[in-house]
Amino acid sequence: MILSVEQENAINHIDGPALVLAVPGAGKTTVLINRTKNLIDTHGVSPERILSITFSKASALDMKNRFTRSFPEYDTSLVKFSTIHAFCFGLIREYSYINNVQYKLIENDDNTLNKYNLLKQIHLELNKEYITEEKLESLLNSIGYIKNMMITPEEYMKSSKVDIANFIDIYSIYESYKRKNLLLDFDDMLTISLEILSKNKSLLHKYRHKYDYFQLDEGQDTSKIQLTIIKLLASPKNNLFIVADDDQSIYGFRGAFPKGLLEFTKEYKNGKLYYMEKNYRSSKNIVSICNKFIKTNKFRYSKEISTDNGYLEPINIVKVKTVSDQYKFLLEDLKKHNLANSCILYRNNLSSVGLMEILEKNNINFYMRDSKLRFFNHWMIQDITNFMNFSYDTSNMEIYETLYYKAKGYIAKKHINYAKTLDYRSSVFDRIMEYPGLSEYYKRTLRELKLDFKKLSKLKPYESILYIENDLEYSNYLRENSMKFGYTYENLMNILFYLKLIAKSTVDLSDFIGRLNHLQYLSTNSKDNKDTITLSTIHSAKGLEYENVYIVDLVDGDFPNISSIEAFEKDNVEPLEEERRLFYVGMTRAKKHLTLITTKYIGEKLLEPSRFITELQQQA
Questions:
Q1: What is the pTM of this model?
Q2: What is the 3-state secondary structure (H, E, C) of 65-121?
């Protein structure tokens, strides 16, 4: 294997702390496995005394497989490649055995006792209402962030917008219940491990002497608590070798701590910095523009990315009028490329819905890296189908009770309760009109609503959604309640846009629901599709590479997201810098062809191109 001078310098670092700053496509894994070999071969280090830690299970497995393929002469069972969570779980099991305690992991959603059900129950008891899937995910992310950043819930509340009532109480009850019943979620593996190592000196001593060398891959994705654990283990010898790229730190919402990298030489006065600035992946066109683009960020190590690869073609920036035009462009352009080496990237999973619809309609199989889409279980879909179902049978009070306050025309709860006492076979509106002393104005409203639902019953799904949105004024309900549900109004209208996109080709409600179910099935089972185009969020595509990459839906407010723009306007640049890093990660997945697509409209809403597109055009 031919190694560059930069790679050789890093591989030959032996003792003391080192930070290797490796740009995209610089061969990080190559350096780590070759340094492992160098430690064993040249310096006589026993393989089991080297611990290599990486970000994900897939990365750890990939590193182990690469080592096995490259150096088949070694007994790879002795070489330890692990995630931090797997390492911590092993530590906790050993502690449990010594102290005769039995922890139980509550991450498996197949079991009744899991973190999801536990938090749902606590939320219900405290807030007297069921938590939505979106809020549950937000709650879990917030709890994880607090633990990974080693802060208190109170500190988190001061710096973050939390849209969950009684958040601190939920957090406290959840943590107390787990402690009392010896339950662990993934984040507890970290907090409990740090407690064990801080309090149990004999175990700390044992693990410090078990390993002589610690190697950390993807250091930019490591959280504050993870870095603290690793540094504690490596001390006092500090044979800590970190490979990272601060420009690819994109997991701030999980507590990733790139600041720890920026402070490396402050913490370790004798620490060595190695730069691997050569990209072996991408064309000179892509490398050059990415190098200029990322320099807009201020909080980073200064690097000059270069490549020996030749010029191929400029980055292609495509501006289209509508989302439909974006799909037409993609379908046409994909004909020029090998699908198996092509990828469509996006900031938000919602973008995949329209892509799935259009690719399936054109008989193009796809592989989705993110198979769990919340879209198909979204409460808005339930609302829309409830409106349609009720229009076919306006006597159905059970459905109407979920809708009456979401449509035009004020109807009081007392009128609903009164109507329940009357003939259940009659129209809900006729029953309400029998309420004693009802004004003529109120009755006129009820008659209009009855007529509205009669009209609705005769429409096809696409026209039905438009009618619900506008004539029944469901959009007003969304506007007034979006923040309550943890969304912006624009977020909700985007979901409605994709729902209408799917509805366009369906003829009735049964066909519409069937189409939704079919797309959900495709998204869940697409992992079986090989040798075809990949659909992925940029977060999930990190570490991967493709000949041909498209990044779609590049509009301001979506990418970068609205919260980072608002923070930037208040002089907080960190969220926008992370969004820029995410864009950079997306661009650097491409080897030869990179296409960036922005649309002028989504539905009737006028959009602005992503400010990152503007930056690229100014730098070109």
A1: 0.92
A2: HHHHHHCCCCCHHHCEEEEHHHHHHHHHHHHHHHHCCCCEECCCCCCCCCHHHHHHH
